[in-house]
Amino acid sequence: MNQPVFSPGEWNVFCTDKAASLRFYRDLLGFVVTDIEDDAVHLRLGEQRLLLLPYAGAPADPHPYGQQATYSFDLMTPDLASAYTFLAEARVPMYRPWTPGAPSFIIRDPDNLVIEIIGR
51 with 41: CB under 8 angstroms? Predict the structure, then answer.
């Protein structure tokens, strides 16, 4: 049997507060709303697509990064220092703050999901 071919689809982000998550992903990270259906919000940033689903009963446990089965994704930026300053001023929770010379920093979304911001 031949291996099937896969391609990335939407990442489903189960959230507790759709408005807070939408502000975070759209207004702070730059995702664009592509569709709204019922409670779900479809977002896109480049080729990456997210689907916000406001059905979570509680935020994720803010466990140490990599210590609990979950997912995370990376976002790339050409100006890590400016990205850090912008997100810090917006009071985005920092899991691993940026220090000059470091290749990345790690933030948490409103439900404690982890996103690594990487300089390119």
Answer: yes
Task: Report the topology of domain 9-56.
Answer: 2,3-Dihydroxybiphenyl 1,2-Dioxygenase; domain 1 (3.10.180)
Q: State yes or no: pLDDT of 116 exceeds 80.
A: yes
Residue whose pair of structure tokens reads 């997912």 in the numeric block: 71
Query: What CATH architecture does domain 70-120 belong to?
Result: Roll (3.10)
Please tell me whether residue 60 adopts helix, strand or coil conformation: coil
Each domain of the chain, given as residue ranges in start order, spans: 9-56, 70-120
Average pLDDT, integer, range 67-76: 78
- 74 in Cβ contact with 56 (< 8 Å): no
pTM attached to this predicted model: 0.87
Please choose, from the candidates 117, 111, 115, the residue with its C-alpha nearest in 3D space to the C-alpha of residue 15.
111
**pLDDT tens-digit map of 20-45:** 999 999 999 999 999 999 889 999 99
